[in-house]
Amino acid sequence: MHGYVVAIIVAVSSPTLAADRVLLDQCEKQLAACYGNCKAQSNASGRCNEQCSTDKCGLPWRESYGAFVDRRIEENAAPVPTAFIGLQRIKRKPQ
User: Tell me: the pLDDT tens digits for 50-88?
Assistant: First the structure.
């Protein structure tokens, strides 16, 4: 019976996770463009990394572009699906 409980939880939460993933994917694209434009203006990498942060794409927390991308890479490389910390943050109100 334990397996059924897991399947039900996954089935119920999948649409929410898919919507969250879409938002994170859009944010990643937007921040990559921001970073590329910043670097094209001969700005230092560190400055562009901080300037192109998650609060620029509507996420309710501030994280540098590099930290955000690192988390996405870790999530995608995990052998089993994991809950991206950002998914939990999206669902909470900003403080």
Answer: 999 999 998 888 999 999 999 888 877 766 655 565 555
Tokens of 67: 């930290």
Amino acid residing at 1:
M
SS (H, E, C) 29-88: HHHHHHHHHHHHCCCCHHHHHHHCCHHHHCCCCCCCHHHHHHHHHHHHHCCCCCCCHHHH
Residues 6+ apart with CB under 8 A from 62: 53, 54, 55
CA angle centred on 88, ends 31 and 16, rounded to 5°? 90
Structure tokens at 57: 């794409």
28-52: per-residue pLDDT in tens? Answer: 999 999 999 999 999 999 999 999 9
The model carries a pTM of 0.65
